[in-house]
Specification:
With 384 residues, the protein is mainly alpha-helical. It contains 18 helices and 9 strands. It is globular.
């Protein structure tokens, strides 16, 4: 019986092959036999997920900033990337505050001597420039503020106060949207803290009330996206919410401005719409949104559950940026230099020319030292 069974199987296979050459049915049989007989195709390997703590990414970004530093302590503004190379763009401007700020924040949090030495050189250069042109004090306002808080040295307080005239001039000569993008209103809030001059909160209140009268429909800029609830989000709205409204709330204590910030971030759902912020100015709005969300997560007047929600929204945005735009040694998008691509918010297409803005890298580095980010694990390998 066993011999008969084996013979029957052999005959069936032979007949199937024979039929396969002459009939459509046989083609199906042969196809099935071929599928069974052939080895399984090799699967395309999926990149192994690589997670890093926020504080470790912050240190890598700080080291990138050191490589972007000039001999005099200032910083190049950006790198231009194409293919597998990135080159420094030789722009002669003295606007390097955010690069210096991020470096200073990481140097302080890690105690790394190399970073501290580089940070001290940048601070010395800023003070030197500030002595000559007050506008440079305003350009480099936030690293000077960090230095004042860290050292209590009056030289930094003097530099910040010297920035007052330039800051006011910038606000008066620019649109509200542009001023918010430059965080001019946050500077005015700090100047109020330093001087207790009521001019600043009164000025902030007048500007904020003017904006509230036309918010959100008359804010400048194209509509980036419309939420499922029909809420139109424009480019400058997160900048105004994070800068003007928050600064006015802190300077005046009036919760109507805080309520407007909260309402905006609840409506905007920025973490779900990141591709809409598709160019470098949009990247600035996204980073400033994280700064605003971080601030909301620390305000005592905000209920704890909502503080947690704002912190998680900020982390979600950070996860997406690091997942898709962190050009690292282990996931090289261009040159693998452990830095963030900032020219556009990209989703897997790294074929064209892009940029790495040192200021934006500095702002992200500074954010990553905050408690809601530093111990968090982030996936730094984008989906294939």
């Amino acid at each position: 019986m066993r011999d008969f069974s084996i013979a029957a199987v052999i005959v069936a296979i032979v007949l199937g092959i024979a039929i396969g050459f002459f009939t459509p049915l046989g083609g199906v049989v042969l196809d099935r036999l071929g599928t069974w007989w052939s080895p399984a195709p090799e699967e395309t390997p999926v990149p192994e997920s690589m997670s890093m703590k926020g504080e470790d990414i912050a240190q890598e970004l700080a080291e990138f900033l050191v490589r972007s530093q000039r001999d005099d302590g200032s910083f190049f503004l950006r790198w231009k990337c194409a293919g597998s190379t990135c080159e420094l763009v030789p722009e002669e401007r003295n606007i390097f505050g955010y690069a210096a700020f991020g470096l200073a924040m990481v140097a302080t949090s890690t105690g790394n001597e190399k970073l501290q030495e580089a940070s001290q050189r940048s601070m010395a250069r800023m003070l030197e420039l500030c002595q000559g042109i007050s506008q440079t004090c305003s350009y480099n306002f936030f690293p000077l503020l960090h230095a004042l808080r860290s050292t209590k040295d009056g030289v930094y307080r003097a530099a910040l106060l010297k920035a007052a005239s330039s800051t006011l001039s910038n606000v008066r000569s620019s649109s509200i949207e542009a001023s918010a993008g430059g965080r001019q209103f946050s500077k005015m809030r700090v100047l109020y803290t330093l001087t207790k001059n009521d001019y600043y909160p009164n000025f902030l209140r007048a500007v904020a009330d003017n904006v509230l009268g036309r918010w959100p429909d008359e804010i400048k800029g194209d509509v980036l996206y419309t939420t499922s609830d029909g809420y139109d989000v424009r480019l400058y709205m997160p900048l105004i919410a994070s800068d003007l409204f928050l600064a006015t709330y802190h300077a005046t204590g009036d919760e109507k401005y805080l309520n407007e910030v909260q309402a905006f971030f609840k409506e905007a759902n920025i973490s779900r719409n990141l591709p809409a912020f598709g160019w470098e100015r949009g990247m600035e709005a996204v980073v400033q949104s994280m700064e605003g969300l971080l601030a909301l997560s620390r305000i005592e007047a905000v209920p704890p559950a909502e503080q947690d929600a704002y912190a998680e929204e900020a982390r979600t945005i950070m996860r997406e940026i690091l997942k898709w735009q962190y050009d690292s040694e282990k996931n090289s998008l261009f040159d693998g230099s452990n830095s963030i691509v900032t020219g556009v918010l990209i989703r897997g297409d790294y074929s064209g020319v892009n940029y790495k803005n040192t200021g934006l890298n500095g702002r992200v580095a500074g954010l990553l030292t905050a408690d809601i980010f530093s111990e968090e694990s982030f996936d730094v390998v984008g989906a294939p």
